[in-house]
Amino acid sequence: MADGASGCVICRGSEGDAELGRVLVWEDDLWRLTTSVQSEVPGFSYLEPKRHIPHITDLEGPEAASLGTVLGRVTRVLREEAGTNLVYLFVFGGGVPHLHIHLAPHRDGDALNDQMIKGELVTRKLPSGAEEIISKDYPPLPEAELRRVAERVRDRLR
Fold this sequence. Notes:
Strand content: 15-25%
CATH class of the largest domain: Alpha Beta
CATH superfamily of the largest domain: HIT-like
Low-confidence stretches: none
Structural class: alpha+beta
CATH topology of the largest domain: HIT family, subunit A
Radius of gyration: 18 Å
Order of helices and strands: HEEEHEEEEH
Helix content: 25-40%
Strand order of the largest sheet: 1-2-3-5-4
C-alpha cells in the first residue's frame, strides 16, 4: 500500500484485509475495494484510497477528482451482484484513521438500518411527494440557527 501511515491497518493491504475480515475485489492506482466476508448482508464493501488519507475532510488531489467516477462504477456493480435496488454510503469519522467509505447494498427486510436520526421517527409526505422524516425525541433546531450555519458555509465556499 502506497504512502502508508505507521500502524494503519488499512495501509497494510492484504494483511490488514485478513484481520478485518475482507477480501480485495478491485483496485486501480488510487483506490481499492474490499468486500466483507463477515457481514449481515451480501456485498458489504469498503472503498478506500491507497494513499493514507485520514478523513474525508483531507481528501484532495487525484483521489478527490476520481471519487465520483469510482463510486458510480463500484456501487453499480455491487447493486447488481448483490441483487439490490440501492447501495447506502456511510462515512464515519472515528475508528480506523484512514478514509474508508462503507458501501452497503440494501434490500427491504435486511439487517441494515436506514435511520439517520435517533428516537421515534415521524414521516410525512411533502407536496412534491418526497418524505420528511423527523424525530419525536430530537426535534429540528431553530430555523434561524440552521440558516446562520448555512450562510457561513455558503460564504466560505464562494
